[in-house]
């Protein structure tokens, strides 16, 4: 029977690698990998319900209409900029400035702002903005928590043929 250690000339011992040592290391390595993968799989399956849309079939059928609307919006070449800021009284002020292709203010629009919390079951906050100055639409929301939000803007002319839609991620800070 051979010894697993050999003594070197300077008195130190050297450990030999045997087949059993390699087997134990391989089994240990892959056991750790499988355990970590199992934890990740468990967390992934329990944290995401898998449902993105309750009406996925209908959404698929309407996809070509969405593409046509996006092309029509790009052809109009409107410039619509939205911002959400915390006012001095703690309310969230939503402001949208809309201009046409020539840079003239767009008046007479029905502008709706939806604020959605990403990855949260919290209901969306919907606000119909009022026209102030030419091409400027404003509104305020109370009790809007600080953090990340998705601002969806929908601007329509009276006949609904000319629309503008945008979806932007914003960050709303705490009260100043």
Attribute tags:
single chain; 176 residues; alpha+beta; 28% helix
Topology:
Elements: E1 5-7, E2 13-15, H1 19-47, H2 56-61, H3 63-76, E3 79-86, E4 92-99, E5 110-116, E6 125-131, E7 136-141, E8 147-156, E9 163-172
Antiparallel strand pairs: 1-2, 3-4, 4-7, 5-6, 5-8, 6-7, 8-9
Question: What features would you describe in this structure?
Answer:
By secondary structure, the chain is of the alpha+beta class. The chain has 3 helices and 9 strands, in the order ββαααβββββββ. The strands form 2 sheets. It has a 7-stranded antiparallel sheet with strand order 3-4-7-6-5-8-9, with helices on one face. A two-stranded antiparallel sheet has the order 1-2.
**Helix/strand class:** alpha+beta
Number of beta strands: 9
Unreliable parts: none
Helix content: 25-40%
Radius of gyration, taken over Cα atoms and rounded to an integer in Å: 30 Å
- The end-to-end span amounts to 78 Å
User: What would you call the shape?
Assistant: elongated
User: How many H/I helices?
Assistant: 3
Strand order of the largest sheet: 3-4-7-6-5-8-9
Short synopsis of the structure:
The chain is α+β, with helices and mostly antiparallel strands. It has helices at residues 19-47, 56-61, 63-76, and strands at residues 5-7, 13-15, 79-86, 92-99, 110-116, 125-131, 136-141, 147-156, 163-172.
